[in-house]
Amino acid sequence: MKTLRTPIAPIAAGAIVALGAAPAQAAGLPQLDISTFPTQLFWLTVSFGLLYGLMSRVTLPRVDRLISERDATVASNLEEAERLRREAKIMAAQCEQRIAKARHQAEAMAEATHVDGEERIRVALAAAAARNTAAGRASSANDRTAALSLSATR
């Protein structure tokens, strides 16, 4: 047995002997002791079998169900998103059509207003010209009669 050069070594050796372990066994690793291999292999097999059974019968089916549910949710969300995208595209096209129609109507109204305004201006100018012409003729007639009456009085 190797002796440790620390002051704790004698206390630890005494504790091992007091517990009934031989000093030769305490120095090595018990899992490498060949005499315990059959029991270690037995418990390894039992533990592995229990864990495998637990995982394959309980845990993995739950995980598989959760993954399937998640895949179904993702697929339905993708389908919904695609449907909403198509609806948004249709709505955008309808809005564009409405905007084009409103633009066309606004242009037609502006043109009609412009034409109507020009026509009103022409009518107003023609009426003013007619009034001015009538007033001018009346003024001329009055001037002629005044001139004739002046020349007749002289």
Largest sheet: none
Q: Give the H and E element order.
A: HHH
What would you call the shape?
rod-shaped
Radius of gyration: 57 Å
Which consecutive residue ranges, at least 5 long each, have pLDDT under 50? none
Global mean pLDDT: 83
Oligomer: single chain
Q: What class, by secondary structure content?
A: mainly alpha
Distance between the termini: 171 Å
Q: Report strand %.
A: under 5%
Q: Please tally the helical runs, counting DSSP H or I stretches of 4 or more residues.
A: 3
- Let me know the number of strands: 0
Helix percent band: over 70%
Question: Topology, pairings included?
Answer:
Layout: H1 9-18, H2 23-27, H3 37-153
Question: What attributes does this structure have?
Answer:
mainly alpha, 154 residues, 3 helices, rod-shaped
